[in-house]
Specification:
Blueprint: E1 2-8, E2 11-17, H1 28-35, E3 45-50, E4 58-63, H2 73-85, E5 92-97, E6 100-106, E7 111-115, E8 123-124, E9 129-132, E10 136-141, H3 150-158, E11 169-177, E12 180-187, E13 192-194, H4 198-210, E14 218-223, E15 226-235, E16 238-247, E17 249-255
Parallel strand pairs: 2-3, 10-11, 12-14
Antiparallel strand pairs: 1-2, 1-17, 3-4, 5-6, 6-7, 7-16, 8-9, 9-10, 11-12, 12-13, 14-15, 15-16
Length: about 260
């Protein structure tokens, strides 16, 4: 079984061409083992590329705990790069994921612009904003972002009564300029801070606009693994034509020889 490793601003993924449906999708222990950084390949998640009768391809995403999960923005850009490598697409694509259809364009220098879902329902509270950008996100501003204990504080919010059994991703944000923000994200399923979260960067940009921290509709987001850009249009409190742009980079290729022990 061939696999390919890609990363988008440090958010890394195992990608597998599953158009022949040979991957053991229900074997969560196997997926978790592959994502393990000590005993497996190591990744924040695993993504299967599959055929679809109406779209260029289908994206199936698993968190590093082995469970199928909601949309991943960085993973979405990586699977577009992977589909291009497989010669399924050229520079434009339309694919399906768990949260619906996505358009994407491959730009220069490994940059990929991915259309995210429209966002209509935001829960704005005095100290945080909650919204769904394909995955659920809690967004709050903090003063000491560089030294902030993201793993401990993020886990407390992720497992709090606010979000019940399903939990939420948690983003801690610092404003750097009028349309420039830094964010650190605790991701559910990984249960730790990651170097980047695409749906989290998207959620941060929209939350900062919705709460009046910026009037810009073209927002720069700094993550630990690099830089992302989020653009959108606003139509009567609805955020539409939302695009996440950033790099998607091939890292290495390998081969899985056996899954007999799983």
């Amino acid at each position: 079984m061939n696999f390919y490793k890609y990363q988008g601003t440090g958010n890394d993924f195992i990608l597998i061409d599953n158009r022949t449906h040979y991957f053991p999708k229900q074997n969560t222990k196997f997926i978790e083992h592959l994502c393990n950084r000590k005993f497996g390949i190591g990744a924040d998640g695993l993504i299967l590329l599959e055929n679809d009768s109406e779209f260029d391809f289908k994206m199936v995403y698993y968190n590093s705990d082995g469970n199928q999960s909601s949309m991943c923005g960085n993973g979405g850009r990586c699977i577009v790069a992977f589909a291009n490598f497989l010669k399924i697409i050229t520079t434009q694509t339309k694919f399906i994921a768990t949260d619906g259809m996505h358009h994407a364009t491959i730009l220069e220098k490994e940059q990929i612009s991915l259309q995210m879902k429209n966002v209509e329902n935001l829960k704005i509270q005095p100290d945080f904003t909650f919204l769904d950008t394909g995955s659920p996100h809690h967004v709050s501003l903090v003063n000491n972002l560089e030294s902030f204990d993201v793993k401990t504080k993020g886990a407390l919010i992720r497992h709090s009564d606010l979000y019940g059994k399903t939990g939420s991703n948690v983003n801690f944000v610092k404003q750097l300029g009028e349309n420039h923000f830094a964010v650190r994200t605790y991701e559910r399923g990984v249960e730790d801070e990651t170097l980047s979260c695409g749906t989290g960067a998207t959620a941060t940009a929209i939350a900062m606009h919705a709460t009046g921290k910026t009037e810009a509709k073209n927002i720069d987001i700094d993550v630990l693994g690099g830089k992302l850009q989020v653009t959108f249009e606003v139509n009567d409190r609805s955020y539409e034509k939302v695009f996440l742009t950033g790099p998607a980079t091939f890292v290495f290729k390998g081969k899985i020889n056996s899954l007999e022990t799983f």
